[in-house]
Amino acid sequence: MKKLNDFPFAHVLVLGLAKSGTAAAKVLLANGKKVRVNDRNATKEDEVVIQLQELGAEVIVGGHPIEVLDEIEIIVKNPGIPYDNPVIVEAERRNIPVITEIEIAYSLVEGPIIGITGSNGKTTTTTLITEMLEKSQQPVKVAGNIGIVAIDAAQSLEKEESLVLELSSFQLQGIDKFRPKIAVLLNIFEAHLDYHKTLDNYVQAKCNIFKQQTSDDYLVYNADDNIITDAVRHAKAALIPFSTKKKLENGAWIDEEYIYFKDDKVISRDEVVLVGEHNIENILAAIAAAKLDGATNEGIRKVLSIFSGVKHRLQYIDTINGRLFYNDSKATNMLATQKALSAFMQPTILLAGGLDRGNEFTDLLPYLSNVKAMVLFGQTKEKLEDLGHQAGIKTIEFAGNVEEAVKKAYAISNVDDVILLSPSCASWDQYRTFEERGDMFIQAVHKLV
Prior knowledge:
By secondary structure, this protein is α/β, with parallel strands linked by helices.
């Protein structure tokens, strides 16, 4: 077990278990800290609760009593717990610091960190950077919001290895000393306001990624995003822009034929497999970060010539009898579906629907020009049907679930059609997760063969 660096607190409250809280508690206990764990949803019989107690933690379950703050010097908070939680409110009143697990992981890492954040495209960019470094024979591990706990990755990280971290605004709001060698800021759209309350709070959380950087570090940023270009004026790191709209002397950019880093032709656009204009931004950001950490053009080309997308994020599945199938189950909002629809010029059959959060879908209307048919499911199918009628789409069908939707879409499709799952809704009316929904789509496509 690695030793924590520069963590002077003796009595720590870990608020919320899950994977990150459990990992944080174990590291803190191994470093001789007095640890109290509080989780509202856990029970005394849970295996992880028993395990932490055996390791020496005090575990309080079933609620969040204010008394858990007694004698506490710092809180390590699960990123999903909002800051209006009564325990957090009282902690701030008592001037008790509140951090997330990312800050603990940072105390364990000796080598360079590449941190990636943004409203959209984090997972794709994180994956691209990691694979570009791997193909360039650079030592690297990946973790963070991508599903791998940063602390766990940090435990096995060698000094010469880079750690690539996907970071959410929830994680970044709870940092203090965290300082990536390379920070990547992709884009900022209005999101998660139920958590952050205001757009300014959300922007500030995202921009925490470069808060502790110095002139020895790099900040890769979207030069086409006005919110970001305004925010990075205050950054101390060396600024490395990327843009799909203009030539850059000191960043990643694109013309009609090639993708460049500075004045270096990295790859021909024709060699890139990944579809979607938004993914060009992700590719440019990934190239900039990977090149700064030692990636070669050969390694980058090896990745971009075969990489067709992260699972459930505009992921190419198969071509069956001339029909191209794409899984974009991660599209749980209209913005994501807009980006998916914009990726294709050919006739498209859209599979959409899901949890009804009270949204209307009129913002999708300008993006339906290539949609020849819709197959709809879930609570929002009638709303989406109305949208289809407004767009003049003549073929609109209902399905009981995603598997049935695939069969119906294939039955009404022609050669060269795209069959796209991009629900524009959360999955929880029918599926536990968007991953489960996407897996059903993939299985249904494979059954067509």
